Structure formats: structure tokens, C-alpha cells
Amino acid sequence: MPGAFRPKFLPSFPLASPRARAVRAATWRTVRLPLFLLAGLVLIDLIVHASRGTFARYAPDDYALKVAGCAQRRPNFVILGGSPVAEGVNPDLMTGLIWHGSPLDSGYALGLPGGTTTDFYHALLHGCPTPPRLLVCGVTASDWNDARNEPHGAYSLMTWADVRKCRALRPDAAWWMTKQYWEGRFARASAVYRYRNGIRLWAAVQADAVWPGCSPATVREARNQAAYDDAIRGGCGYAPASWFVNRRYDLAKAAGDPGPPFGFLDKYRTGSHLKYLDEILSWASDRGVAVVIVDMPVTADLEAKYPAVMGEYRARLAEWEESRGVAVIRASRDSVGLGDAQFADIIHLNGAGAAKFSVWLRDRLAERGGRP
Known about the structure:
- By secondary structure, this protein is α/β, with parallel strands linked by helices.
- Helices cover 54% and strands 9% of the residues.
- Strand 2 and strand 3 (102-104) form a beta hairpin.
- The N and C termini lie far apart (101 Å).
């Protein structure tokens, strides 16, 4: 409008030309679909993040759950190890043992399926802000095998400082550690990626409620995962996989189904992972924590299949015991009273074997604790 008043503080812009408006409209038509898709993905990710408790239950991060459970419970004794500890030690059957004149009334099993001594150390860092009175470290030959680079907990807990330390101690695993670290950071950034398996299993359960029997194997997996999650959250860390509890290795062999071959000892070399046993012992020494190492029982078939490996493993254990002066309990099958009926497979105890071994270990620890 001619002569209309315009405040001096408002700049005057020329009207956009028809060509400029056409360029803007064309640009918007080009980018609007990708922008809408990106906004939709962000919205979906936010919805999944808000519902993460539901999806996480069907895809439990057993490493993180166990470490968090240990940190919250603050037990006065901790059993640390890999899957043989996860399947084979029940702290609830060990509570009340007398250690140097007073009872240990709260225990936790930091058994990490797939873990090595590298993982054991990082579990201590994150899972024991209040140091226990006693640390029991259950080890097997596979825990020291440098052919295994995997850090089971890298996705959820390892910091960049942890990665730098591991790269210095274990240069053979530098690439693996770095890759796992960045994959873990991406999983934290994207809830859809982090809970993708949980979403799949949750969806199977919902579908089964509408169309019963539509995916029985997936539904069975979902229910097992949910039960495992509940057991870890509410217990002492002992949450054996359902497949292991009632399986008997002797019956399985007789039926021609001995279980997985466990070829993790086929390429065996030691040295790198062993450095983390020293780190564990130093951690305990700095905090006044008593340490006992347990040579975990395995089947006669494993011993027969890998005699050279088991010989090297036990020789290194003896060297480490002598050099560091740490107590070692050798839990042979005969001393514990275990046979194939108490194993689920070639290396893991079943429920009956875990109960028997836990009571045996409690008694051996009580003997150790009674010594001056």
C-alpha cells in the first residue's frame, strides 16, 4: 500500500522473483520425502526408546544385566568367570560359609557367557564399586585362548579408556576392540538397532496371541529370553540357560547327540589374555580383596580331545600360581564327584551338577578361610 508506515528497524526485502519461487518449490519437492522419512525414523526410534523396557526383556544384554545386578546387590563374595561359571555355580547354595571368622551371607555369580579373562576384568570394574571380601575366579582353558578376541561386554559397558588399555595389553585384539566399541556407541544412539532382536521376539509373542501356533520356535525363544531376563534381574546372577538345566551329557551321548562340538580350543595359544589375570589380581590387591582361583571341572571327553591344550593350560596356571602366590583350588571331576550325568555338554554343568559343585566349592572355600 503506497505510503504505508514501515518501522525503521524492519529491513525491506525485495519480493522473490517467480524464478526464485519456482526453484524453492522444486527444491522442497526434492527434499521433502527424505525429510519426512528421516522424521519418521526418528519418531519410531523415540517410540522404541520409550518402550525399551518391553523390548529389552526379550533381548537381554546378559553381560550388562549381570554387572548391574552385582553393582546393585553389593555382595560380600563374587564368583567371576565365563559360561562354566554362569551355568555351574549357584551362590545361593554357598551363602553362610565362614571366611576368616565371619560368614559370607551375600554372593553373586558374574558368569559371562562367551567371556574371557579380558571380560572378567571389565566386569569387576563396573560390577564391584563396593569391593567384596572374597573374589572367586573360575577359569578354564578357553578363557585364556588368544584365538578368541571377542570382548563379550564391549557393546554395553566398555569405555574408550577401557579400549585404549586393552589395545596396549593385547595388540592382537586392537582392531576387534575398536570395532566393538564403535558398534556399541551406535547401538546406544539407535534404539531400533539396539533392540532389533527384542522387537522381533516381542512381535512374535503378540502374533501368537492372535494366531496361536503361527511361529512356535520364535515364541519359545522369546519366552526363554524373557524368563532369563527375569531370573537375572531378581536373583544372584545364577540364571542357567533352559537348555542346560535338565540335559544330561551321558544320555545325550548314548542317544547320539553329544551337543555342540565346541571347537574353541582347536587353535590354542596363550599369553595375551593371561595379562588380565594379573590385572584382576592387582585390582583385588589394591582393594584388600582376597582372591581364590578355581580350575573349573570339565568332562573326561574334553580332556581326551585336547590333551596338549589342557596340559599347556594347567602348566600356565601353575606358573601363574607360583609367580603371584595366589591360592588355586583344582576342582577335578573325581574330587567333586562329578560324572557325565552332571554335565549338560562337554564343558558345562547341568542343574544337578551345578548344585553339587556349588556345595563342594562352598566347603573348600570354608577350609581355605579357616586357615591363618
